Amino acid sequence: MVFLETKNLTKKFGGNTAVNNVDFTIEKGKINAIIGPNGAGKSTFFNLVSGFHPPTSGQVIFKGKDITKLPSNKIAELGVARTFQTTNLFDQATVLDNVIVGHRLRTKSNLFDAIFRTKRLKQEEKQCRDKAIEVLDFVGLTDVAYKLAGSLSQEEKKRVAFALGLATDPEIIFLDEPAAGVNPDETDGLAELMEKMVERGITVCLIEHKMSMIMKLADKIMVLSYGEKIAEGTPEEIQNNEAVIKAYLGGSAIA
Amino acid sequence: MAGLLKQRNIIAVLIVFAIVFPFITNNNYFIHIMTLAFIWIIGVYGLNLLAGYTGYLSLAHAGFFAIGAYSLALLTTKAQMNYWLAFVLALIITSVLGMIIGLISLRTKEHFFAIYTLCVGYIIYLVIDKWDSLTGGVRGLIGIPAPGNIGPIEFNTPISNYYLVLFFLLITVLVVYRIVHSLTGRTYIAIRNSEDLAQTIGINTMKNKLMVFVISTFFAGLAGALYASFIRFIGPDIGYITITFDLLTYLIVGGIGTLSGPVIGTILIVWVSQQLQFLQDYRMMIFGPILTLLVIFYPRGISGGFIDWRAKRKEKKQNQLNLENQQMLSAQETSAASNKNG
Ligand SMILES: Nc1ncnc2c1ncn2[C@@H]1O[C@H](COP(=O)(O)OP(=O)(O)OP(=O)(O)O)[C@@H](O)[C@H]1O
Ligand SMILES: [Mg+2]
Fold this sequence. Notes:
- The complex is a heterodimer of chains A (255) and B (342).
- Helix content of chain A is 36%, strand content 24%.
- Chain A is built from 10 helices and 10 strands.
- In chain A, the strands form 2 sheets. In chain A, strands 6-7-8-3-9-10 form a 6-stranded mixed sheet, sandwiched between helices.
- In chain A, strand 9 and strand 10 (228-233) form a beta hairpin.
- Chain A starts with a strand and ends in an 8-residue tail after the last helix.
- Chain B is mainly α and 342 residues long.
- Helix content of chain B is 77%, strand content 1%.
- Classes of the chains: A alpha/beta (255), B mainly alpha (342).
- The A-B interface holds A 50, 52, 71-73, 76-77, 81-82, 84, 88-90, 92-93, 97, 100-102, 104-105, 107, 109-111, 113-115, 117, 121, 124-125, 128, 147-148, 151, 164-165, 167-168 and B 175, 178-179, 182-187, 189-190, 193-194, 196-205, 211, 215, 308, 311, 315.
- The site of magnesium ion has 3 residues of chain A, from helix 1.
């Protein structure tokens, strides 16, 4: 079943076409990957899908609904989460405090509730806290929940970023280079976590440079090069694809 | 000792101190200075919500302070309105103007926002200064009435004014405290941390920023209105940039983005500069270097520095505790193992 789909998606920054006419479909309950050389337009593709940048042309369709023109906060409300290539947490606050706000979009309390400490506020604060504790447990960070975010390792920070995304109750999560700057052992742990998300019914789409990880993990891969989709298919198909091997200079990067 | 230092107790002691202060000093001049400091603190809290908690440094704050003051002054003197009606209207006028200006200026970010609001603040000052027929221009407005009676309570003595301002200050602290410690406050902090991230976790950043901007101008207006009826005379200089920078200095010294910062910074600076009055403008030769050092070594001010110090100490303790637990566990394991072997 097509879950999320892009049609002729294009983004130009001045004369530079970062994403060029990309058609891509994401199936529900699968791990989808986007690979490609640096500057290929992968992050820009995420930015377009999550409503962060408006596309120059083309469409993004999520569960049959055209979301191309929606602002990113509305897209998040529909159940599309994402993480950024660089994790920016609030270092002076605890991990738990960082994640609690992730569930804010599912709550309604406003300034009035805040000033008068209404029942609704108390209830929703508990709801957000419970959600944060739940997703921290899910990503395996219960032990560090009360530590300052600034004191965490790179890998733990990545997990917090996942948790923050998961706290929004997404149906699909876009992860931008989740394993960058993380050592090989920890990479396996993060891969397991992504599989666990899929088991939970969350569709995953990730950008990654770590080929061995992608080839093991992904159900489907799209390859971008200079903004264009040059290949799409299963890991085996991608590994044997002429155009892909050429884009990666003789295939040395794919192994 | 640790129990004594609990936040709740400190707050209670401070409130009691503020209540008995007039009786301790019995000096009308000191009461006057303290009342003024309280008025500034209210304004600083407004600035803190916007600049400290949401990350938008507005330099138009004195402008809104002046709008509050002038609205109250004009409504009471020229329109002869009932004091408290004028008071409420002054707050509404400031907030509505705040919303309009916020809608425009919040399209910019960071330095551009600071510079943009600096210009807005200056324009507000110019309008007040040049609109002679309405504001009295450089001559200002005189004869602003003291706060109107509430039932049998009159506000024509320094002490009664002191308590009135203290009342509004306590309300302000309570409201800001509750906002900061709510989901709304978390939302603002998320915006300060990273607006992009906030937006992607579903927060309507523009709506939230506009809300804080309006609240911040509301408190500036409240401070202004109280100022006008306390001093009873106002001139365009209350909207000048120097007032903005005074408020900002109080906030930075006390601790930007902290709850106690506005109180600590304002009271400290107001009293120290009272003591250094004999130095006249040379005071700045003392303040300048101290401020510079503070910003370098304690970017989150006195209060922020204290909070960081306490957090570090707590973590150290926690680590030590973990270490001890581990040692104990491993000791138990070895003894268990040796028991088995034996
Ligand atoms: N906001 C922007 N403004 C202008 N140009 C941009 C912007 N964002 C990206 N680009 C350009 O678009 C192209 C694609 O960038 P993008 O970040 O999407 O690449 P990427 O595939 O994610 O690369 P990497 O693997 O290094 O993260 C680059 O040429 C980049 O300079
Ligand atoms: Mg990228």
